[in-house]
Structure formats: C-alpha cells, structure tokens
Design goal:
By secondary structure, the protein is mainly α. The protein has four helices and no strands.
Length: 88
C-alpha cells in the first residue's frame, strides 16, 4: 500500500513547464534545426553546394547585366564559364 500512496504525494523533483516565451524559442530552434537537417540530407559537403549556388547566381547576374547593356553577352558567358570551370 505504501507504493500506491507514493505516487499520489508530491515528489521532491518539480516538473514545471517553461514559460510561453521560452517554449516558443525552443520550438523555433527545433524547427530551424529540422529544416537545416532536411536541407543537408544526402549532401556530403554542404559548403560546396553553397559555393556552387553562389557562383551560379553570380553568373546569372552577369548575364542579365550584359543583356541590359545591349551586348550579346556571348563573350561574357563563355569567359565566365571558363573562369568558373577553372575555379576563379
């Protein structure tokens, strides 16, 4: 009977829930962590992927800039591709 009553009285350990602001922050951090893990799933080198994406965006920006200036942009495209392939 002592075992049954031990679950009914208060324990020395207090299990309180954190305040709402702390809980929101924890949930937001957990969501960010899950999103980051999902984005990097299957990628061996996430930094390499990020660099490749930046290079691609830079090349697109240069192509748009060349098109706005009235040039055909083919020389710029070829030289940009060569530079990207060489790692410059």
């Amino acid at each position: 009977m002592g075992v049954f009553l031990s679950c009914c009285r208060g324990n020395s350990v207090d299990f309180t829930t954190p305040d709402m602001e702390t809980r929101r922050r924890q949930l937001a951090e957990a969501a960010d962590k899950r999103q980051q893990e999902q984005e990097n799933r299957g990628i061996k080198d996430p930094e390499k992927v990020k660099r490749m994406k930046q290079r691609s965006e830079e090349m697109e920006r240069r192509q748009e800039e060349a098109a706005r200036h009235g040039g055909s942009g083919s020389e710029l495209k070829v030289s940009s591709l060569v530079k990207l392939a060489e790692g410059h």
